[in-house]
Amino acid sequence: MSKPQTNLRWSTSLVLLVSVIIAYFDRLNITLALPKIAAEFGWTTEQQGEYGGMLFGIFYLAYGAANILLSGYGERIGPKKSLLIIAVLWSTFTAMGAFFGQILSLFIATRIFLGFSEGIHFPMMNLLTKSWFPDSERSRANGLWISGVFVATILSPIILVPIIESYGWRTMFYLLSGAGIVITLPLIYFFIHNSPREHPKITKEEEEYITKNQETELDSDVSLSKLLKSKVYLLAFLVGIFNNMAAHGLTSWLPTYFTEGRNLPFSELSYAMSVPYIFSIFGILIWSYLGDKTNKRVVLASIGFIMAGVFIYFAVTAQTISATVIILSGAIFAVTAYTTSEFAIVQKILPKQALAKGVGVYNGLTTLIGGGIGPVIIGQVVSNTGSWTNGVLCLVVFCILASLTLIALNRILKY
């Protein structure tokens, strides 16, 4: 069936994109505020590694647990209602982080609740994407809202660092809390619908195009317990762990690496943090197009991880910060080959009736393990060696392991 004249389905991905940007601002705020928080508490370099790793890791532990425990419930009440509820909750706990920020134990508690609040965000967005897009558009549809991760990473230092400098990190937390209520909630309420048939303005032509071009399920009777015993699912799961170790390790520690490891003035952090992630946008556009065009998403992702590992090695061993920033741009570009393919691969493996729980378990455990352990490993390497370079070099190992696992996955999935 030819493409319809209308493109209402893409409004779903655009709203999800905005929700991801604001949600990731709430995650990334701690990475940008850490140097100021550390100065306020009087932490040494070793304590920054220990306590910073704890603040980063505890969020992802809670986030991962919520994916596993709450995704099925989110599917039962519907993705739209679920997104509305969690947007209110993550905004609330971001504000509470500012309010209780002077007491470390309570500050850590707010990060735990923030992680729980954001936990089912990605499973619900996957459910919407599989309902609203045929397989031939899935890399681009996923890539559009996933690009919010990189847009947030680009914009957060540009927007948030000046706020921290002028008004303090607590004010920044309060402003982000307000953005969730004022921007995210209305967009979800007015523009998100659980399926094409529920949208009051969709044309019959576009609805038929979406439903008739959905791929045939690989196994319509598959259960979640069966998936957990599936080699292809477990290999995809392992890749997700290594990816989260690299991705969250990088975003968590890069600001502190620049300010503490490379002695970059905090006021110049916007440039160093934003420039590399600008190239992620080009990566999203190019790799998502290649993924849909060639249907070789696993191969492209494997190549991307090898490229990223090489770039990261040369970036951290570069003599100047300018060279580090330029080379890191190549690494960020390369790793988006997997970013655009990750959920398309998972959506390919999972039948629709197991999608929310399957993605919840996948995203939950990969984040719980990878996002929880990756930043902690880097923090411990810094704490034990006193070297920020050694810590960041852990990312090279994570990328190599991800690439090798993707090669094994491709022998089975051929996707």
Pick out its properties.
single chain, 415 residues, mainly alpha, Growth Hormone, Chain: A, 16 helices
Put the structure in a nutshell.
The chain is an all-alpha fold.
Please describe what this structure looks like.
This protein is mainly alpha-helical and 415 residues long. The protein has a single domain, classed as MFS general substrate transporter like domains (Growth Hormone, Chain: A), CATH 1.20.1250. The protein contains 16 helices and no strands. It is globular and about 60 Å long. 54% of the residues are buried.
Instruction: Assign the CATH architecture.
Output: Up-down Bundle
The share of residues in extended strands comes to under 5%
What spatial form do the alpha-carbon principal axes imply? globular
Query: What is the number of helical segments per DSSP (H or I, 4+ residues)?
Result: 16
Number of strands: 0
Straight-line distance between termini? 23 Å
Instruction: Assign a percent range to the helix content.
Output: over 70%
CATH homologous superfamily placement: MFS general substrate transporter like domains
Count of individual domains: 1
Return the string of H and E elements.
HHHHHHHHHHHHHHHH
CATH class: Mainly Alpha
Low-confidence segments: 216-221
Mean pLDDT across every amino acid position = 86
> Which structural class is indicated by helix and strand composition?
mainly alpha
